[in-house]
Amino acid sequence: MDVILSVEAIGAVVGAVLLALFVLGLRRRLIQRSGGTFDCSLRVAPPEDTEPSGKGWVYGVARYNGDRVEWFRVFSYAFRPRRVLERPSIEVEGRREPRGTEELALLSDAVVLTCEHRGLRLELAMSDDALTGFLAWLEAAPPGQRVNVA
């Protein structure tokens, strides 16, 4: 009798885990449905005088939506973006290759872009192709918008 209960309990746990993974995958598909998405890790930039580390990076998916980039955490069930970056408020400060333990925390082909958005320094890590698209999106601002791209 105890064996049957433990098998049922294990089956329930496995079922719950599979359901959770299915919902995460479904959420990602719904976010990507409108197109214009790319893998993008994000963190609040550490002070400029500190050596970069792998701490603080959160893996996510970014989506273009008009004059905004909406950033969603990958491992979250929320359908609202965690962070929204408005094109006129983004100032690119520079780009660099991952250093030290960052190489372990980020995707293998990532480039780190340091930006300021509304007074907050952020670092975005994305592939070289996604970076090209992001910078082109920034430069494609309507006439009269002030955009600072380094």
Q: Would you mind describing this structure in some detail?
A:
This protein is of the alpha+beta class and 150 residues long. It has three helices and eight strands; from the N terminus they run H-E-E-E-E-E-E-H-E-E-H.
- Describe the global form: globular
Count of individual beta strands: 8
Q: Termini distance?
A: 69 Å
Structural class: alpha+beta
CA-based gyration radius: 19 Å
Low-confidence stretches: none
Please count the helical segments.
Answer: 3
Strand order of the largest sheet: 1-3-4-5
The helix fraction, in percent, is 25-40%
Overall average pLDDT: 84
What does the largest sheet look like? 4 strands, antiparallel
The amount of beta strand, in percent, is: 25-35%
- Secondary-structure element sequence? HEEEEEEHEEH
Question: What labels describe this entry?
Answer:
alpha+beta, four-stranded antiparallel sheet
Helix/strand layout:
Elements: H1 2-32, E1 37-39, E2 41-44, E3 60-65, E4 68-73, E5 83-86, E6 90-96, H2 102-105, E7 110-117, E8 120-127, H3 128-139
Antiparallel strand pairs: 1-3, 2-8, 3-4, 4-5, 6-7, 7-8
Briefly summarize what is shown.
With 150 residues, the protein is an alpha+beta fold.
